[in-house]
Every structure is written in C-alpha cells, then in structure tokens.
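User: Batch of two.

Assistant: Item 1 of 2:
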Amino acid sequence: MGKKVITIAFANNKGGSGKTTTCANIGYSLALMGRKVLLIDGDMQMNLTLSFFEEEKVLEFASGERNIYYGVKKQDDLTGYIKKTFCEELDLIPSTILMSGIEYELFTRWQRELILRKCLQEIKSSGEYDYILIDAPPTLGSWVMNILCASDYVVMPVEASPWGLFGVANMFEFLEDVRQINGELALLGIAITKVDARKNYYKQTLEAFRKEENLRVFEQVIRVDSEIEWSQDRSRPVAAHKKSARSAAEYMELAKEIEAYAGRNRKH
C-alpha cells in the first residue's frame, strides 16, 4: 500500500488567532524536514498565498482562473491549480478575493459538503505529497465544512489573550457536526500562539484547555516575535527570512509534534 497523504486543516472561527501564520510556517518546517507539502489557501484574504509570493504575483493568481475559487466552482481536479513556490518541497494552491462568494456557489450544489474532497481525490491518490495543509477562513459555514470534510485532522491555533478563548465552544460544536459526515476527522491539537510569557493570559489560556479531558494542547507554544511580521513583509515564512529567529525554532518544534501525532497514520 502506498503512503497515506495526511490532510490537516488549520481552523478557528475567531480571527487573529495566528491561523494562517501557523499554517504557512508549519508547512515550511515540514518541507525543511524533507516532507513534500501542498498548501491550500482557503481564505479570501489570500494571506497564505502572500506568505510565499510577492503581492504582484498573488494579484495575478487572484485575477486568473487557476485559484481555489474556480477549482471548486467548476468541481475540477485541483492538480492543474498547483503553483510551485521558492521551496522545492512545497507547493501551493492560491486564493482570490472571489472566495467571499463561495458560500453562494456551494449553496445549491448536490452533496455540497464533499466538493473539495472530490476535487482533491486525484492529488491524494497520486502519492505526490506527504501532507496537504489547508488554511480555513475564520467562519463556520459550508466552505469550512467542505475543508473539514476533506481533512483527516484539525489543528486549532488559539491566541493567548483574554479574547483567545472566545468562540472556542462554537468551534468544538461545529467539529461535532462535521463528524456526522466525516467520522474520521480528529482534532489533532490546540496550538497556543502570540504568547507573551510575562502576561498571565498565557497561563489562564493553558489552564482552561488543560482542564478539558481528551484534548491535546501542543507542548510547543509560539511566542510573540517581531521577526514574524518582518518575514510576512518579505513574503516568506520566518525560517526562510531569518533562520536564527526564535519563532523559526518554535515552529520547527511544533511541526515535529504535529508529525509525531499525525505521521503515525502515514504508511510507507
């Protein structure tokens, strides 16, 4: 049997959780570990695409018809929508602002929750990738349902702040709804982001989650680091911008944790 492609959605219905940044940097860290990774930008803000391409190129992708919006709208095999990034082990399917209308496009479709899963069938069966990482928008609608129905796991980035826990219960309820359709979906873990260790919010956030039974909180947290903003300004993941950055090491450790749990199911 060939290797199983592991698909992981990065999802949280609260904006500002560090979701896209985590997705981009975990993808790049896995690529540095020698894994072949496909990133899918599922958000109209296009920030995942901007993490690997200059703005001019991102706008070119967004105005064309080879982005996630048209792929899903046409219910196409997404193989032809893949763009090569500067990193040999990492490819990306870009987004577009048109994703603001994806809910409308999906609304009348037959088995609408499973469209993305079908669009990814060829890519998954090709054995080209070890991981597919999908950046979900901060909403709870048909599109996020699609993303989760196409995924094996969810990583939920949560900001270590008083607002960080807001809406988490809604996300957990939504995951239960998705499991009615995709019974295989599992919450891989909670990734605590934007940590300022001097503030008590961090400890409160951790304690709140650690009280929950059967809920994994990743050991590696991501601390606040100005190098993350600088790397975003350069359209690069932080390790590509500055290898010695503290956050680069933290994302690598988090990627190793994610691989340790998710990679158990990869059969070579």
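Item 2 of 2:
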Amino acid sequence: MRAKQIAIRYGISTLGLVIVALGVGISIKSNLGISPPSCPPTILNLRWEGISVGTFTWMMHLVLILLQMAILRKKFRLEYLMQIPAAFVFGYMCDAAIWLFDAFTPCTSYPAQIGLCLLGVLLTAIGIKLEVVGKGWILAGDQTVVVLSDTLQKPFSTMKVLFDVAFVLITVAFSWFAFGLLTGNGTTVVIREGTLILALLTGICMRLTDPFVEKLFGPMVSSHE
C-alpha cells in the first residue's frame, strides 16, 4: 500500500472523526439531549465527574471492540485493531468539541434548538460515511454496526437506528439507577426529544447523504487503489 494512498484514506477517515465530534458538541449545545452514542459516556461523567466524557467514550469503544471479537471470533481481522487509536483520538476530540462549544451560551430558542439538533444529525451522518469511505480507521461503534449488519444481513442504516436506540435505553436505565431520573442528574439534561431525533434520523439521513459523500470522496480513494 503506497504512502499516498494511506495518507488519503486516513485523511478522509480523520475528517470523518472530526465531523462526528463536532456533531457531538452541537447536540450538547442544542440543550435538547445528547446524541445517542454519547449518552452512556455523558451519564457516566455525571456520576463520576473526575473522568471526562472523552475518557468514558474511548473506554466504551474498547468494550465494543471486545464485543466485535466475540461475534467475529476467527473472522476478526488484525486491521480492526486500528479502532483502538481511533477510540483515543475521537474521545479527546469530543472533549475538545465540548470545550469549544462551551464558549457559547446554551441555546434557549426552541426552533433554534431543533435546528442545532438537525445540524447534529447531518454532521454525524456525513462523518460516519467519511469514516467508511476512507477505509482507514473507523470508530468502534460504527464498526460494531457494520459487524452486526453483516452478521444479521440487515442494512447498515437500519442497524444504526437500532444501535442508537439501544444506547438510549442503556442510558435511561443507568440514569434511573444512579439519579432516580430518566433524563439525567436533574441539572444536566442527557436525554430529551433531541436524543430521539438524533437516534431515529441519523440512519435515515445517511440514506440521503451517503450517495453525495460517496460521489465526492469515493473517487479519491478508488483512484489510488
């Protein structure tokens, strides 16, 4: 594999990680609920504040990699271990995005909140596809969806919706156990209608944005293969 090909692939994949991280920051700033894959790390951060959301994020990704190993067994490929550095990079990108958007006042206008939430959906959908198109590193959450999609022979977009809903349900259960509430700790809102919007619409949005991303970035990868 030539150096230029590697640089292009990982450049596109890294762009995807950055865009997804920005989607996380946008969803938090919308004040309507956190994007589903970030719900578990966020609720854990509220319980154990000394550990950042980004740290809990990469810890969760390591668990997902172990899940992939359990599902694939001998089919688990050595290159999938690239999800490990991706987990660390993305985790701290999330911390950086949260810090970046903390400089702005939380949105209070409901139409604007919905707009930011939808922007978060768009960024997440585009970022995930860039990871896939780049064929470089990919987030463990998204690779787990790929594994489940292939194993169960279901469309990626469908499995993405189901996976996001599962994240939300896990967060609701932990929130109730830790704080006696379904939405967070009473001060910080983790789950609201924005969370459901992000859970249900990201996979659907990907059906619309995937062809555009593939057309724009796909030739950059294929031409160097």
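The chain has one domain: 3-222.
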